[in-house]
Structure formats: C-alpha cells, structure tokens
Amino acid sequence: MKADIHQQVQQWIACAGVEDVAGEGSASLQQHLLECPSCRDYADAASQMVQALRSVPFAADSNLVRSTQQRVRARAYQLQQERTRLQFVWMSCALVAFAAAVTTPFLWQGFRWLSEIVNVSTPVWQIGFAIFWISPSLVISVFLVARGIHLDHRNNTSTN
Prior knowledge:
Elements: H1 3-16, H2 24-35, H3 37-55, H4 62-118, H5 122-159
Helix pairs in contact: 1-3, 2-3, 4-5
C-alpha cells in the first residue's frame, strides 16, 4: 500500500471517526484497519480520546450563558434586519424593472417624435435616447460608490 493511504485513513479517523465514515470510504477504511496495525492503533487511540473528552463534564456559568444568549439574539436581529433590507432591495429592483419596461417604449416614441419636429438624424436622437436612458443609473451608481467609500473610510477610522 502507498504511504498516502495511511494519511488518508488517519485524516478520516481524525475528522469523522471510524463509525461516521460513510459510503465507499467506510468499506475501504474497515479493510485497511484490518490489515494495518499502526492505523488500527491510531483509530483506537482516537476513539479513547473521544470517550475521555465526552466523559468530562462541562458546565457553563450563568454569565457565559447570558452573554451567549445576548449575542445569539443580537445576531438573529441583525440577520432579520438584513433579510428585510434585501426584501426591499428586491422589491425595488422589480419595481424599477417594471417601470423601465413600461416607460421605455413611450420614451423611445417621444424621442422619435421630437427628432421629427427638430429634424435630427436617426443616429443622433438614438444616441441622445441612450444617454438620457442610462444617465440616472450612472449618477446613482457614482453616488452609491462615493457613499460606500465614505462609509468604508468612516468604519476603518472608528476601528483604529
């Protein structure tokens, strides 16, 4: 057998234990343990270590329990706020997509009508439409990036 198989078997034992290895690995692990005394000794030692650790009673004092409960509640509240915020973002995105789908054809017709009145060539009014159509997104993106950099700078200075 290769030296790598011993490392693999020991890693399986260390991570999952002999009883918890599932699938094809379980059969090959059991077969290897029957054939290899050093890995069998390693598995026995690991099993004894786990039993020893499980036999030691562990009790948390009331301050640790209270502190942990507070942190869990704070994290749950934070996750709820994040979920709510993301729901608003998704609803806003859906609303913006719907508004864009409804208003874009009217805006297109308006630019076409205006170009006929002003007598502007087709490529010029189409470029004007594209600039007019995308400029709000660009302005908001620049604003959000600038705000994000500002918030990041403020967070970095408060942690130092």
